[in-house]
Amino acid sequence: MTMPDLPTNDRFLRALRREPADTTPIWVMRQAGRYLPEYRATRERAGSFMALAQNPEYACEVTLQPLQRFDLDAAILFSDILTIPDAMGLGLSFAAGEGPQFDRPVRNAADIARLAVPDMDGELRYVMDALRLIRRELRNRVPLIGFSGSPWTLACYMVEGQGSKDFATLKAMCWNQPKLAHRLLDTLARAVATYLIAQAAAGAQVLMVFDTWGGLLGPAPFREFSLRYMAQIVAHLQADSASREMPVILFSKGAATHLAALADTGCGGLGVDWTVDLADARVAVNGKVALQGNLDPAILRASPEVIRREVRAVMDSYGNHPGHVFNLGHGITPEVDPEHVKVLVDEVHAYGRRLREQ
Ligand code: CP3
Fold first, then answer.
1. Is the pLDDT of residue 3 over 50?
2. Looking at residue 342, what is its pLDDT?
3. Ligand 1: which residue has its CA nearest to atom 18?
4. I need a labelling partner for 193 at 20 to 30 A (CA). Which of 27, 84, 131, 147 fits?
5. Sheet holding 144-149, edge to edge
6. What is the rounded end-to-end Cα distance, in angstroms, of the chain?
7. Ligand 1 in reach of 43 Cβ (< 6 A)
């Protein structure tokens, strides 16, 4: 499958650099996913989620699917944050309609001592092959985002062995055996930095770190167990020639009170969930970073009129300033009507133009 050659769209990169652009760029977290019938068909052909993610041709195909339907301003590698623990030997599977599951969760000092940074040309080569293929097929139409989970969020799944509401098993380790928790997080921080640098070398143009469960922590533990390791990763990326110039977006869900501290890591952008007013988030980050967000994904279940109104409310809250990347405040959910995503994308672009004329 080949995309038509179109002029390079650099709205997303411009917004991340906080430079003016013709309108507000938009992409959607989980834009390649189960709400699209063509995604479900490719997944069916692949046989399982992991078979889909580990085959570069399939991964490329589903990465491009949402771009064929909608006027999106970025592509995101089709993969998962749990590729790192899988490559570390934990044995990842996704039962149909259920969350992730590890055959061999990490529970004690011996389990943690065994973990090593995976080989980017070995166990994780499929990710780099997918990125190279996607870049070729995209023909610079829009920038390509590479990503990883944060050390904290990866550790949540690795210690729990599956999804959870509170990830209390890792939290208990943080209180009872803090040295052990730090050893795990330190190994993960090195793995994530190595992984993102390899993704940059393979063609990713923007890097994003998903800290989905950072908001489970109180203020001091957030700084100690989540923020500190993301700051290390940003520093690593800025020290490597492959990733030095590359914008890094950090997304800590539920961490509205930490926006200023997150901006101080030196990242280029921050993802923001829908519990924050973007006007307040702008004040908190004081012009240091771009902001990405933050429509409540549940609004996509509402009528087109309501979606348009809520899109405008998010954009009015940010105001007519450079540095806004429109997105949802978390991933799109499977029951959303794809027609509603078209309404969303087109309204962001149309209203972004109107805002700039004011
Ligand atoms: O955004 C994109 O389009 C790129 C692909 C992407 C996926 N997962 C594909 C996926 C990205 C960026 C992720 C990140 C991810 N994975 C996160 C962080 C972002 C977030 O949503 O908070 C997390 C926590 C995971 C772990 C994960 N993967 C869970 C908990 C699940 C099961 C829950 C679910 O939504 O079903 C997955 C599976 C998964 N990853 C799916 C997709 C499209 C659905 C699985 C399927 O097709 O059967």
1. no
2. 98
3. 210
4. 27
5. 75-76, 144-149, 206-211, 248-252, 269-271, 290-295, 324-328
6. 41
7. yes
